Amino acid sequence: DAKKYINYLYSLQIIKKYKGKYYYCEDAESNIKIHYAYWKGAIALALTVISIACIFVSFGLISQSKKKVYNNEVSFSIDNTWNEYKNKDDNTNGEETWKYYKYMTANDVLTGNEEHSYPETITVSYGDNSFGENMKLNDLRELFESYFYEYMGFKNYQVEILTTDNGYETLEIILGYEDAMVFNYYLLNGDKIAFISASTASDDENLYDSLEEYTREVVNSFKWNK
Question: Which stretch of DSSP H or E encloses residue 34?
Fold first, then answer.
């Protein structure tokens, strides 16, 4: 219930996300009164949309929003809005790599807005675990934290250990720059490793949230087939 209530406050912008952290906005407290005034209409509209969607589904008129990518060894899913970039040199040294890109704000690209002149990217690759089978994620986490803080003197980063929907322990590394954000995920599976990375050359916080969500979906769907 607590998670649902937090999401509820987040939808009203009473709780806001900024640079990976959440903050309480007192100025937006009145939004809850506005919300109550329209809840009946919102529910009625939602029920109508659901009913129409069910009709479309029954006739097979709604296409899949995600595409499944797979070979004999691994599989994952990615949103259909991402375009694949193919390079014959990507699959070398026993590794398989897929690259995807998209412009989050197409109108800005068409108008020549420099802020969005570069696409957001997601890269998926896998291969042998070069860190060694005995390497634990906590060891890898300490290695990266030491590198970022002590060697690079870099402070705007976040390193966490997660478990994907398919049960793989994963190291998440988020790197924040002045006008860019990078999301890196290392998935370990014995003597195998997968690396999923996403980046955006923009200082738009909304793009960061969207890109993180898209990437998390890929990470959670990734699976070794054998």
Answer: helix 31-58
Greater pLDDT, 96 or 109? 96
- Give the Cα separation of 122 and 182 in Å (integer): 10
- 136-165 as b/e, with b when 16 or more CB fall inside 10 Å? ebeebbeeeeeebeeeeeeeebebeeeebe
User: For the whole model, what pTM was predicted?
Assistant: 0.63
Are 74 and 225 spatial neighbours (Cβ–Cβ below 8 Å)?
A: yes
Helix (H, G, I), strand (E, B) or coil at 66: strand
More reliable by pLDDT, 54 or 221: 221
The SS3 of residue 102 is strand
Q: For residue 116, give every residue at least 6 positions away whose Cβ sits within 8 Å of its Cβ, in sequence order, or none.
A: 103, 104, 105, 108, 109, 202, 204
How, if at all, do strands 169-176 and 157-163 pair? antiparallel
Token code pair at residue 61: 């008129």
Are 162 and 146 in contact, with CB atoms under 8 Å apart?
no
Q: Which of 209, 203, 220 is nearest to 77 (CA)?
A: 220
